[in-house]
Amino acid sequence: MTHSGTIFESIGGFDSIDRLVTAFYKRVGQHPKLIPIFPEDLTETARKQRLFLTQFFGGPKLYQEDRGHPMMRRRHLPFPITPQRRDAWLECMGEALIEAEIEEPYRTAIFERLTMTANHMMNTPE
């Protein structure tokens, strides 16, 4: 199977992003450290995450078309993101990558990129 150079296409495009985001928010909505900083209804949050991850991993620039420049750190400043919350977020994402059946080497590449992003989002000490 030949893939072009983007992670987005290599993992199977929109369907894989959708599976990943669905698996991720199923966990976020139940995680005691994350519940306080996420809305009760995660529908819109998940929609924006699908757009962002599509663009972040080399697919169409859907997030930018819908929301403008990502500016992720600025958009996350209203939420107290501590090291423990970063770790909880990454734990949920790691499990979601497995559930969504994202294959290696893409699973590790995605997790590494999202770890850098999560580190950048931290804005509050414990």
Automatic annotation (TrEMBL):
Domain of life: Bacteria
Coiled coil location: none
The entry's keywords: Heme, Iron, Metal-binding, Transport
GO molecular function, one term: metal ion binding
Necessary cofactors: heme
A Pfam family it matches: Bac_globin
PANTHER family, per the entry: TWO-ON-TWO HEMOGLOBIN-3
Family listed: Belongs to the truncated hemoglobin family. Group II subfamily.
UniProt-recorded name of the protein: Globin
Organism, as annotated: Virgibacillus profundi
